[in-house]
Amino acid sequence: MLNRFWLGIFLLWLVTQFTVQASQVPQVVVSIKPIHSLVMGVMDGIAVPNLLLSGGESPHTYSLRPSQMRQLHQANLLIWIGPNIEVFLGKTVATLSNQTQQLRLFEVPGLTLLKIREGGAWEAHSHGDAESIPDHEHEVHSKTSEQAYQWDQHLWLDPHNAKVMVNAIAQALSQVDPDRAYHYTHNANLLIQRLNKLDQDLQKQLSASQNLPFLVFHDAYHYVENRYH
């Protein structure tokens, strides 16, 4: 009788351990706020991803804190645009183990890409040793790490790109957390519906402002201009 009691306790412990392990969600780290909002939408109801830059810092000059370094090394998934935006991550990602998978959104197929504008009123950009690319704005998805510096990487400001990235985020999360793949896909579909609605609203709201000049101190709105004329 006593043996049956302890056997029952042992089986209960095994079930408890299995439940705890199955309920664990992946540790996800996201670089900047615009991407974090998309990841939050895909992970809605499951977990909140960790954000590295809260919004006031520059991704070009930021330095990681020791606690953030630990976050990255403990993460299951890092989601970022790429080293042309998040300069501070360039060297760090090379030290991450295979435990931390990466999703570089700039490398996702299907994006609309626009070349960085230079000359005249446009500010100068450093491209390193990037090789030359045919002089047209739209390009199919074929990019080397050097060619990445030829492209404007404020990708999320075109709702079409945001939808492409949402699908890629859902796929990446499903790979590291297959038990919740259905939820990620479901959330992604809901978020894409919201982005479609946003795109339609912006088309209407900005139709009266088409082709009007405006002044900025940093050329970050190329994708908005291209999408809404």
Description:
This protein has 229 residues and is an alpha/beta fold. The protein has a single domain (25-228), classed as Nitrogenase molybdenum iron protein domain (Rossmann fold, 3-Layer(aba) Sandwich), CATH 3.40.50. It has six helices and six strands, in the order αβαβαββββααα. It has helices spanning 2-23, 33-42, 66-74, 159-176, 181-206, 222-228, and strands at residues 28-30, 50-51, 77-80, 101-104, 114-115, 151-152. A four-stranded parallel sheet has the order 2-1-3-4, with helices on one face. Strands 5-6 form a two-stranded antiparallel ribbon. Helix 4 packs antiparallel against helix 5. The longest helix is centred in the C-terminal third of the chain and has 26 residues, at 181-206. The protein is globular and about 85 Å long. The termini are far apart. 24% of the residues are buried. Residues 15-21 and 127-144 have low confidence and may be disordered.
